[in-house]
Structure formats: C-alpha cells, structure tokens
Amino acid sequence: MATYSRLIRRLMITSLSIVISRALISPLLTLFLSNKLDLNPQDVGLLLGIAVFSATLLSLYGGYIIDRLDKRQLLILTMLSSGVGLMLLTFAQNLYLVTLVLIISETASALFLICSKAMLSENLPVGQRVKAFSLNYTLTNIGYAVGPMIGVVIAGVQPSAPFIVAGLIAAGSVFLLLGVSRETGPLSPASPPQSFLNTLIILKNDRTMILFTLGCLLSTLVHGRFTLYLSQYLLVTHTQEQTLDTMAALLACNAITVILLQYQIGRLLKREHLRFWIAGGTALFIVGLIGFSLADSLVGWCVAMFIFTLGEMIIYPANFLFVDTLAPEALRGSYYGAQNLAALGGALSPVMCGFLLMHTSAPSMFYALSALAALGGYLCFVSGRRVATIQK
Q: What local confidence, expressed as pLDDT, does residue 389 receive?
C-alpha cells in the first residue's frame, strides 16, 4: 500500500471506515426495523427493497455527475449524507420517514462506491488497477470482520446505539480526504462534457455493457444483499438470539476469508480470461447456497459461507475489471453508475426472499437463488467472451 499515492492510500482507508460504519448495523437492520415498525419479514423485505431500488435508479444520474464534478467533494458529501441518515434512523418513528432516510443512506452508499471506483481508475495505470481494487476490497472487508461483532456488543447495551456510532464514523471519515484534492492533476476530462441524454444514448448502444449488466443484476440477487436474506431466513427458522449470533459468525467468516485470500486471487485475474473466472465464481455461489439450505449447525453455516465467499472474491474484481475494460476514459463514472443498476437485484432480493419465506418452505429460497445465479452467470459469460474478443 505504501507504493500508492497519498490520495489512493487515503481513499482506501476511507473505504475501510465507511464499511465499518455499515457493518456495525448489517446484522441488526432487519431486526431493528421489524421491532421498531412492527413489520413481518415480507414487509421488512419490501421496505428495504424500495430503499435500494430508489437509490440504484438515482445512482445512474449520480454516475454522470461524478464525471463532471470534483470527485473528492462528492465523496465528502456522500459520507456526510450517510452519517446523518444512519443517525436519523434511531429517531424516525413514521414508516414514510424511515423509508426516506433509508433511501438517502442507500443512495449515499451507492455513490460512494461508484465514485471511489472511478477515482481508482482515474489515478492508477491500467496494470495496477485490478490489484489496487483487490487490495481495497480486502481492506474494506476488515470492516466486515470487526463491525458486526462490535455492533452486536453495542446493541446488547442499547439497541439504537450502533446506528449512532455508525453515523459518527461515516461523518468523521470526511477528515481523511481533506487536503488531497489537487495532487493528481485535473479532476475532469479534457473533452467537453456531454449531456446526460447523450451519455444515456452511448450506454444504450453498448450492447455488451447491457448484457453484462443484466447478468450482474441476476447475480446480485444472490450476492448483493446476502446478509439481508440470510437474516430473513434465520428469523423464520431460529430465535432472535440465534439469528444475531449466527449472522455475526457468518459475516466474520466472510470477511476473514476475503482478508486472507482476496488479494492473492485478484492478482490472478486477466482481462482475456474474465468469462472463465465468472463461470467459476457463479459455480461457487450455487454450491454455497445449497450448503446454506442443508446447514444444521454453526459449522455447517460457516463452511457454506466460506464456499460462497470464494465466489464473491472472484465476481467483485471481475466486475470491476470488465467495466474498466469497456468504459471510455471520460465516462468512467457513468459506466460504473450504469453497471450499478445491477444493484436492483439487491433491491429485489429481500422482497423476493420475503415472499418465498412467507409462502413456501424456507429452504426453497436458496434453490430459487441458485437458479438465478446460474442464469446470471451465463449472461456474464457470454458478454465476457465479447470482452476477450475486444482485447485480441
């Protein structure tokens, strides 16, 4: 990490602190909303789905804005918005107000992710990007190793306290980016900025990007918000105390696996072999999901999570590398914003899983997710073949 510029180092540390703020509440959010608003699992899934769906649509325009304005200032704005939103959750009592706060918080989180990816691409040579992204992803998963456990401990003292602490961490992260905005040259492309409509036309005509985004959407149903549907499943099949303990263990297992192996796996990724990596990652997702459906002990859950995480470690950098390959230099934010539409899968996931848990046997949820993962992996494989052709 010492080989990177001060801006890149600060950006990675900021990503770590933001993930810690989100991880603090990740095993608690479903239970918190259920108790606060007296909602059943299906209604909680619908509420979270609406928030993620709205944030994802807003992020498409956000990607366009990221290409036009100072990325550092936009990152600061997203951190402040996320921090305020998380703290407001503890005071909001009305369903509509809670929904609005969740949308603000989810939008800020999505824009932070898009903007940080664009900054990595903008400030690093092509050969260093996937390694830097893998390192950044490894660092952020340190947050998932410690955040949930800290959140559960704090919640044991005061249920709403983790949201206050998370908000303070997110807002306080602003100070990490102060004073580093001018060390890497121009912040916007030299060519005249295009209108949002023209940018949408460019994206619409990129058929490879459309096919890949559709495949990612189906895949994101599986891995984008897996903490939410696992929480929903456990609340149906286990007690609240067992749910909290199991989720803390699973998230820690997920994060520790990424910390130990992500960077090594990320170094192996090559642009010309993307489709094969994507196929392998998809297969690991399916095996992990089947493992979840069969798990009858904490050890079984953790083994399934380990396999699932191996797929996650392949898919995330592969997605970054795919978009980095296709995106024109002046439209990186817009392309990352368009690919972020795949997060709609994360919006649909808790809704679909809540419905399945209410109307079918609980394990059938994992088999439905396996089928969607297979279809999404196939679409990504086909689009990855086009990328390999481009690179020849």
A: 60
Q: What does the chain come to in residues?
A: 392
- For residue 303, how many other CB atoms are within 10 A of its CB? 16
Q: Which residue has the tokens 């909680």?
A: 44
CA distance 55 to 291: 31
Handedness of CA 368, 369, 373, 379 (dihedral sign): positive
Amino acid of residue 219: S
Give residue 232's pLDDT: 86
Residue 264, token pair as written in the block = 């090594």
Model pLDDT for residues 241-258, shown as the tens digit of each residue:
888 888 888 877 887 888
115's tokens? 């903007």
- The DSSP H or E segment spanning 36 is helix 29-37
DSSP string, 217-253: HHHHHHHTTHHHHHHHHHHHHS-HHHHHHHHHHHHHH
Whether 67 and 333 have beta carbons less than 8 Å apart is answered as yes
CATH numbers and ranges of domains, the chain: 6-178+194-391 (1.20.1250.20)
CA dihedral 371, 376, 379, 380 (to 10 degrees): -140
CA dist 233 and 235 (Å) reads: 5
Q: CA-CA distance, 370 to 382, in Å (whole number)?
A: 19
Quick: pLDDT tens for 55-88. Answer: 888 888 888 888 888 888 888 899 999 899 888 8
Rounded CA separation 101/320 (Å): 29
- Residues 6+ positions from 359 with CB-CB distance below 8 Å: none
Pick out the chain residues at pLDDT < 70. 1-3, 179-194, 386-392
Q: How far apart are CA 242 and CA 181, in angstroms?
A: 46
Largest Cα–Cα distance in the chain? 59
Question: SS3 for 148?
Answer: helix
Q: Do 186 and 62 meet the contact criterion of CB atoms below 8 Å apart?
A: no
Cα–chain-centroid distance for residue 68? 24
Report how far Cα 115 is from the mean position of its chain's Cα atoms. 13
